[in-house]
Fold this sequence. Notes:
Elements: H1 8-26, H2 35-45, H3 52-64, H4 68-89, E1 99-100, E2 103-104, H5 106-109, H6 112-130, H7 139-153, H8 158-168, H9 175-199, H10 206-233, H11 236-239, H12 245-248, H13 260-277, H14 286-297
Antiparallel strand pairs: 1-2
Helix pairs in contact: 1-4, 2-6, 3-4, 3-9, 3-14, 4-6, 4-9, 7-9, 8-9, 9-10, 10-13, 13-14
Amino acid sequence: MTTPVPDFAAWSRAVQAEVEAALSALLPAAEVLPQRLHAAMRYAVLGGGKRLRPMLAFAAGEAVGAPGERVRAAACAVELIHAYSLTHDDLPCMDDDDLRRGKPTCHREYDEATALLVGDALQSLAFETLAQPGLHPDAGVQLRMLQLLARAAGSRGMAGGQAIDLASTGRTLELAELEFMHILKTGALIRAAVLLGALCADRLEAQAEARLEHYAKAVGLAFQVMDDVLDAEASTATLGKTAGKDAAQGKATYLTLMSARDARAYARELVEDALASVVTLGEGARRLQEIARFVVERAF
Length: 300
């Protein structure tokens, strides 16, 4: 008798639970010196979030037959980078926000200096996790994974996108400029999540990698388009972060260039492009397809 395949909701809950447990084990216990820093690290990482990037890593790994224990480490590394970026982005010198994942931001719960150190420490822990001996049987592939995550987090990725975002406050960007910013700020880490999950396989064919990379680029942009729509339309309680903050701060968003209706249609086009790019991967790409659809259907 064949085992029933879990639906997307059940699968995503299972991934979230697995990642939460793995992150809890990776993070130092709050009782370990320096206790305040370690407690703040756990506060910033655990107990919330969609875990979209870990889900993408697991889905990509599943598509190419990567072992789950390798993917788990890669997924945790990406999520630690994501948590570090949120902690720093919320600081008064950046986006100056008070709410994240339905609770006070790290610098509000603790203090600014602690939040800064939390981000630094989470970034270091991400690379320590990905560099663990024997993560991949091919050391060259593991080095490539480290390089991929470093680029995604740096000036040619997430940090660079944030710098462009801050410099663009108060002015309208052309669509190409806006998309370049988001390919760096949001898309780079989403691309890293997909490719790191896939690189956990013993061998990743070049054609499959190219298709996964195209998928990640399209899904990353669609995610940001919907983020802009939801920031304008959803409530703070639904989002778990301050709604309408981008408009209030004069940030460049897709809704400064098009209507919410057109933005939703554009996100659907991007998702259709993503779906088409992985169709040749067969049934193994099922979770990637489900995540892409979730991106445009989500309410938070």
